[in-house]
Design goal:
Blueprint (H helix, E strand, L loop, with lengths): L3 H15 L4 E7 L5 H11 L5 E6 L11 H21 L27 H19 L2 E6 L6 H12 L7 E8 L10 H7 L4 E5 L5 H12 L5 H11 L3 H9 L12 H10 L3 H11 L7 H8 L3 H13 L3 E4 L2 E4 L2 H10 L2 H17 L9 H11 L5 H17 L3 H15 L5 H5 L3 H14 L3 H13 L7 H18 L4 H11 L7 H14 L3 H18 L2 H17 L3 H18 L2 H17 L3 H18 L6 H15 L2 H12 L5 H18 L2 H16 L5 H17 L3 H12 L8 H11 L6 H8 L6 H15 L3 H14 L2 H17 L3 H18 L2 H14 L18 H11 L4 H8 L3 H15 L4 H11 L23
Parallel strand pairs: 1-4, 1-5, 2-3, 3-4
Antiparallel strand pairs: 6-7
Helix pairs in contact: 1-2, 7-8, 7-9, 8-9, 9-10, 10-14, 11-13, 11-14, 15-16, 16-17, 17-18, 18-20, 20-21, 21-22, 22-23, 23-24, 24-25, 24-26, 25-26, 26-27, 26-28, 27-28, 28-29, 28-30, 29-30, 30-31, 30-32, 31-32, 32-33, 32-34, 33-34, 34-35, 34-36, 35-36, 36-38, 38-39, 39-40, 40-41, 40-42, 41-42, ...
GO molecular function: adenylate cyclase activity; ATP binding; DNA binding
InterPro entries: AAA_16, P-loop_NTPase, Sig_transdc_resp-reg_C-effctor, TPR-like_helical_dom_sf, Tscrpt_reg_LuxR_C, WH-like_DNA-bd_sf
Protein name: HTH luxR-type domain-containing protein
């Protein structure tokens, strides 16, 4: 029925995914236009070897059922593979957080659930990867307009990470024409930002299509008048065509006056008992079991079966092994709306009372949510029961990591509280405890503004004099929430919290740790170190090993930044070992982040990169790739950029952005990406990256150390575009940032870039005299700044030597170019040529196109060649550093996926590298490539590592 083009599009999308391309198809259209029919027909065309993972979103209680489609498909997988088979395909062979969705898989991990939602998402992503590797797979989720917020977040996560799941096609169906206030309208706009999402809009049928549908329904050719009439009244909607035809009686078609009448008309033709059963079923949004329907209707087995048969024959209801559901959601809505308010309320009460008596009558694992929905619908007459049901459903939602739904339910509890005398007895908790739980749920759901408002309401009702500990804990929460929102006052709140919380309170160490972390981020080093020392003392007093680990890492980090790195590395290693003994991934990642950061700040890039890779490995094992992973990816990328491994840095950034991180980290990674693009000559790409980062940072209150790298990128872009006035404005903006002189590591690069503007040099020279230069990297920047402000060959040579000692080829090449320019102007021709050629060699190795162009211009002015005399043309099979690394792993017999996991890049990127290697070596296969590499001596000396053998750790890094 005129869906051949759309069907072919779905089939083509499926074929593309089998070739390794990510594709998600959003099948959109009005209710009844045939979305389910299309995807069902598409599924039927697939080979028997394909796997369909199907689920549907359900409209219940105004907020949907948390993770309903994924619970359903997990249950189907258990039916297909068995519990053991599903567990074998999950990370580590254990249920992990998926046990929260389907308890039969096993209990979820006990303890802190702070990162549980991130782990759940990663575990489901990993499961999809394994399933798609086994056989071609389609993830089909219908009716995403009904999706609860948690389900929407999971869908966006899976679609955003689809590049990591070769051979998986994602198909989503969505109803258009929703009210503007409907939350689900966000889904298509959010999906549209992802490049591989395609929209398949189903239009109504033409007259020919309606005629074809009538032919199928009637079993013979319809007469012209009937086709014309049905087409005009249905407007080409297949559901309405069916409804019109179901209204026919012996005298011909009955013609309803409205669409509502049209959809309700088939019900009016049923026997009275069947009508009552259908009306009762309409109040239950989910698939309803036979026993529950019997209980609600009061019919015995024979009576219920007799009443159901006409409804099923009329295509109003569909029966399956799990019970009954409406064939079309729109019909259910119309039938339910047709009920009198008293009828609807009576049915809700019957459902609720039936499920209370026997929770097994509800959908598996959904008794609490269904009770909350039914009692909530009659809360006006039964507020106490609605209150209790919402509270218990909120607890269940929290255990399932559905924090947005938990917040919705707790908000309902708070709304009902004033209407229920003795509400505390119904929920077993006081009003403040409910507000407290709602604040936690809001923060976990990402609604930080709501969380802050709830915490402030608690603070307003807390007497700090009578309850200093409670007031301090509230201030600690408010301080952390203010920081998350980028609002001022966070440090002040945390400082006040440490003053209020008594030394005898077990919360004291955590408050001190939170304050030291924020002080060192600002940074306010001296106060931060003192607070970290106090945190260690308090943690030891309470035996709080976690707090001691965090504070020890912060103190070592601060002291290392002050120039005491070698003495602090063993302390960081000890802290990491303690975190491992605790099996505390978050604490371990905090230590590794601190260690990589100080190593990088000292210019020990290989060691910093190794620690960052360890952090990424911990993130992958813990299911924290999206939440914690981007920080460690940024550390790895920064070290790789500095060391001149731009290809590795670009791949690391691309991989991290492929797991869409939170916006602040997303922006920082994009700044690093823009830095590489600018150095390689892609000014348009760099401008796009800078603009995106500025837009993201404008929505928050980022730290100065986040804004300074963006400032440098923007300044360098304006200088490259020959816009000195705009560059000068950006320098002034950067220097006006708060606490800017307390961040010398990030300020020195801005000073170096700004020094290229002669008009700013007096001010910058004065400022530079007050900015410390701690460690070799900052000292190299200071030398570069001095040479830029007062060009002298000797100063440029010292800067070039400093960068060479650090192994930073790009600033080394720039310093060599500066020295060559001064030497050329002074007539020292030989000195200029030597430095030009060294700079050209570095620029060529990096692929720094604009820098090489500057070198060539100076060489032309000096009438020399930047190449060494007799220098051979580049070797045809010369490989990049990243390709050498891939080749080494390839020679060890690793698969593309194993190489991708080792190097933290995508399998698709590995495939590209392998193709380049085969081409450069002029071989046809992997074995030949390995043999040729050994023969030509292309692999690092010392042999290849055995699979699984760890990288050598730098001194002071955790074991």
């Amino acid at each position: 029925m005129e869906r051949d083009r759309e069907l072919a599009g779905l089939r083509a999308a499926f074929d593309e995914t089998q070739a390794g391309a990510p594709v998600t198809v959003l099948v959109a259209g009005d209710a009844g236009v045939g979305k389910s029919a299309l995807v069902g027909e598409f599924a039927a065309t697939l080979d028997d070897g394909a796997r369909i993972l199907a689920g549907e979103c359900l409209d219940f209680g105004g907020s949907g059922l948390p993770f309903a489609p994924f619970t359903s498909l997990l249950r189907d997988l258990v039916g297909e593979l068995g519990v053991t088979g599903v567990l074998r395909r999950l990370p580590g062979g254990v249920a992990g957080e998926t046990g929260r969705l389907l308890p039969v898989l096993g209990p979820p991990p006990a303890g802190d659930t702070e990162q549980a939602k991130a782990r759940l998402f990663e575990q489901l992503l990993s499961l999809m990867q394994v399933l798609a590797e086994e056989r071609p797979t389609v993830l089909l989720i219908e009716d995403i307009h009904w999706a609860d917020r948690s389900t929407r977040e999971l869908l966006l996560f899976l679609v955003g990470n689809q590049r990591a799941i070769p051979a998986l096609l994602i198909v989503l169906t969505y109803r258009t024409g929703l009210d503007r206030a409907h939350a689900a309208r966000l889904v298509p706009s959010e999906l549209a930002r992802i490049g591989w999402v395609r929209r398949c809009e189903l239009a109504p049928l033409s007259r020919r299509g309606v005629t074809a549908q009538l032919r199928e329904l009637l079993g013979h050719e319809p007469d012209v008048d009937l086709s014309d009439d049905v087409f005009a009244r249905s407007e080409g909607n297949p559901l309405f065509v069916e409804a019109l035809m179901s209204c026919r009686d012996q005298r011909g078609p009955v013609v309803p006056q409205t669409i509502r009448d049209l959809l309700i008309a088939p019900l009016t033709l049923l026997p009275a008992p069947s009508q009552e059963v259908v009306r009762a079923a309409s109040v239950c949004a989910v698939r309803i079991g036979h026993e529950l329907l019997a209980t609600v209707t009061g019919l015995d087995e024979t009576e219920l079966t007799a009443a159901l048969r006409p409804a099923i024959a009329a295509n109003l209801l569909v029966a399956d092994d799990e019970g009954y559901r409406f064939r079309n959601a729109l019909t259910r809505e119309v039938v339910q709306d047709d009920l009198l308010p008293v009828e609807r309320a009576r049915l809700h009460v019957r459902y609720a009372e039936a499920i209370e008596r026997d929770p097994a009558l509800a959908s598996p694992g959904r008794a609490g949510a269904q009770l909350a929905g039914h009692w909530g619908a009659v809360a006006g007459k039964h507020p106490a029961r609605a209150l209790s049901a919402a509270w218990h459903a909120a607890e269940a939602a929290g255990r399932s990591l559905a924090y947005a739904e938990q917040l919705h339910l707790l908000t309902e509890v708070l709304r009902l509280w004033r209407h229920v005398p003795g509400a505390e007895e119904h929920v077993g908790a006081g009003h403040d405890a409910v507000v407290d739980a709602a604040a936690d749920a809001a923060a976990a759901a990402g609604d930080v503004t709501r969380a802050l408002a709830l915490v402030e309401s608690l603070l307003a009702g807390t007497d700090a004099g009578a309850e200093p500990g409670r007031a301090g804990r509230m201030l600690m929460r408010r301080g952390e929430l203010r920081h998350a929102l980028g609002r001022p006052g966070g440090v002040e709140d945390l400082r006040a919290a440490t003053t209020l919380i008594p030394e005898t309170d077990p919360a004291a160490p955590a408050a001190l740790v939170a304050l030291s972390y924020r002080l060192l981020t600002v940074p306010r080093e001296e106060e931060g170190r003192l607070v970290a020392e106090a945190a260690i003392t308090a943690a030891r007093r309470f035996g709080d090993v976690r707090a001691e680990v965090m504070a020890t890492a912060d103190l070592a980090y601060s002291r290392a930044r002050a120039g005491d790195l070698d003495a602090q590395l063993p302390k960081l290693a000890q802290a990491a070992a303690s975190a491992r003994r605790l099996a505390d991934d978050a604490a371990l990642l905090h230590v590794l982040r601190r260690e990589a950061d100080v190593l990088q700040g000292e210019g020990r890039y290989a060691a910093a990169a190794s620690v960052a890779r360890t952090g990424l490995a911990v993130c992958a094992a813990a299911g924290l790739v999206r939440t914690a992973g981007p920080v460690h990816a940024a550390n790895l990328a920064e070290s790789s950029i500095a060391a001149g491994d731009w290809d590795e840095a670009a791949e690391t950034i691309e991989h991290a952005l492929g797991h869409p991180p939170i916006p602040g980290l997303d922006a920082y990674l994009t700044v690093l990406q823009g830095t590489i693009l600018l150095a390689k000559g892609d000014l348009a790409g760099a401008r796009t990256a800078a603009a995106y980062a500025r837009e993201v940072f404008a929505d928050g209150y980022p730290d100065t150390q986040d804004l300074l790298p963006l400032a440098r990128l923007e300044i360098d872009l304006e200088l490259a575009g020959r816009r000195p006035a705009e560059a000068a404005e950006l320098v002034a903006e950067a220097l006006s940032l708060p606490e800017v002189e307390a961040s010398p590591r990030y300020l020195w690069p801005v000073l170096v870039s700004g020094a290229q503007l002669p008009g700013l040099r007096p001010r910058l020279r004065s400022l530079a005299e007050t900015v410390p230069a701690i460690g070799p990297v900052q000292q190299a920047h200071r030398l570069t700044f001095a040479a830029t402000v007062e060009p002298a060959q000797a100063t440029w040579d010292r800067a070039a030597a400093a960068w060479a000692d650090l192994g930073e080829p790009y600033p080394q090449a720039r310093a060599l170019l500066g020295a060559a320019s001064v030497a050329g102007e002074a007539g020292a021709h030989a000195d200029a040529v030597t430095r030009l050629r060294a700079a050209a060699s570095l620029a060529d190795r990096l692929g720094a196109v604009p820098l090489r162009a500057e070198i060539d211009r100076l060489a032309k002015a000096l009438r020399v060649s930047p190449a060494e005399p007799g220098e051979p043309a580049p070797d045809r099979h010369s490989l990049t550093g990243r390709e050498i690394e891939v080749l080494r792993l390839l020679a060890e017999g690793r698969t593309n996926r194993q190489i991708a996991a080792e190097l933290y890049i995508s399998a698709k990127t590995v495939s590209t590298h392998v193709s380049n290697i085969l081409s450069k070596l002029d071989v046809s296969g992997r074995v030949q490539a390995a043999t040729t590499a050994h023969r030509l001596g292309l692999l690092p000396t010392g042999g290849t590592r055995k699979p699984g053998q760890a990288n050598q750790k730098p001194m002071g890094s955790p074991a």
